[in-house]
Design a protein that fits this description.
Helices cover about 30% and strands about 25% of the residues. It is of the alpha/beta class and about 300 residues long.
Length: about 300
Amino acid sequence: MRIAAIAPSFKLEKSLWQSLIRQETLNNWDLEVPPELHGKSLLYAHSDEARFQYLLEAYKSGYEVIWSVRGGAGCLQFFPELLKNKEVIKKSKSLLVGFSDITILHWFLNVHLKRPSLHGLLLNQMFDESCSGKSQSLTLKMIEDFYNNEIDQTYMVKPLNESASKSKKMTGTLLGGNLTCLASLVGIAKPAPKKSILFLEDVGERAYRLDRSLHQLFQSGFLNNIEAVVLGEFGKALEPKTQQNLVPAFIKSWSENQKIPVWTGLKSGHGRINYPLLFGAQVSIKRIPSETSRIKGELSWEQ
């Protein structure tokens, strides 16, 4: 197994970058982290042109895994170049890994090319001792399972609205990622296809900003075809005057007003725990028996 590092978004802090470029293996897989991935740029790891070219070369070179060093912002700028080079990228069998700003690349692969990709830890986090060890091991396992054509991971979820509580089983293609990034794709990318199950997460966004992004996505018709929503981590975002975190209350209120099922409980996103999700693949969410009155669900990948 060969891994190519890419830096399509923000750059790492200098000390972290110097440490990462000295790494030659991960899980006994060959790892290549070219020092030139980081160059001169005011905001990002390198110029828009350079960041895209390194990404494209990774797809041309036949790596099994293409792993983003960091998220943040920067991928949206070269979405037109992704569209121009979609036939080249489509020929590759590489599995893209990352999250946050990498949502832009996931959507392109999953929706435009109908290719799977892995919403998982960033490459730098795989060497970070403060990161969840279980998240690290599950990420590696899901990569191995992907190449063995057998995803056997299961996550527990719980309903957030009446529609989810009444749902017995549903299947669809898992798509999504960071809410703010998805909202930026409106008018640029193809909307969600039919029979989609949407995963959402975000970090540091106050309730009104989450509300605005959701309105943008739904009012534009971008998410007309989704059949369910599964929520991950959203973290804290305090109101300036009151220091209240309105995010949980907003998510509960928003979910209760949706006609489609909304589930929660996935430990995926910007928290210390970030469990991997294979996007662009068929999943099922089914109700499972419970010894209490609480309704529980199980998200798993269809074989």
